[in-house]
Amino acid sequence: MVVIEREMTIAEAADRVSSWLPGHRVEIIRGSIIASPPPDEPHQGTVFEVGYEFRRAGAKEAGLKVRPGIGLWLPTGPADYAIPDLSIVEADIGDALVRKNCYAPHVFRLVLEVTSSNWSDDTLSKPDVYAEAGVPVYVVVDRKHDEVLLYTGPADGKYPDPQRFKRGQTVPVPESVGVSLDLSVDTLLDGED
Q1: Whose CA is closest to 150, among 190, 182, 102, 108?
Q2: pLDDT tens profile 133-165
Q3: What is the DSSP letter of 122?
């Protein structure tokens, strides 16, 4: 009897990790598998509140959709993808499906990540890959450092240094997103209005 073995692809390995860790968010960033634990209540409160604010500001009327946990295909590797906590996308996103339920970056106007125990992925790795993908606006709710980072205007695969916002301030959503909105830093950090 002959047994032929083959190496598993990174995408197959990510699928396997996902089956081993129900509730975890599994992503491939620069060829590495990242598994994030299930979000806590304040994390999900932030995602809900921000989504609500975008809807209230007229996202639908502006031809946008508010989508939590939707896949973003990345140009940084052959199987790379991220699953931002919240995305503001163009209404015709369905036409931009790449594979594995991930969509081409050109339909993403804003992505938001709320840090968890693996906060360094959101603050160190993802600014680079989202900039390389050309995502116009990246918001990081950095709960570890009690601040919000706003990255805008990627050029040549890099964002300029982020704007930093502290408690008591508001984060102005750039016009390029398509709606006029200021987000409370306190609401972003605490997940409550």
Answers
A1: 182
A2: 999 999 999 999 999 999 999 999 999 999 999
A3: I
Helix ranges (DSSP H) in 7-158: 10-20, 41-56, 119-120, 126-133
Please determine, for residue 2, whether its predicted confidence score (pLDDT) is greater than 90.
no
Residue 48 buriedness (CB in 10 A; 0-12 / 13-18 / 19+)? middle
pLDDT tens figures, 30-71: 999 999 989 999 999 999 999 999 999 999 999 999 999 999
pTM for this model (two decimals): 0.93
Burial-class residue 127 by CB neighbours within 10 Å (0-12, 13-18, 19+): buried
Query: Nearest CA to 181 among 61, 93, 53, 75?
Result: 53
- Mean of the per-residue pLDDT values of the chain: 93
CA atoms within a 13 Å half-sphere pointing along the CA-CB vector of 11: 10
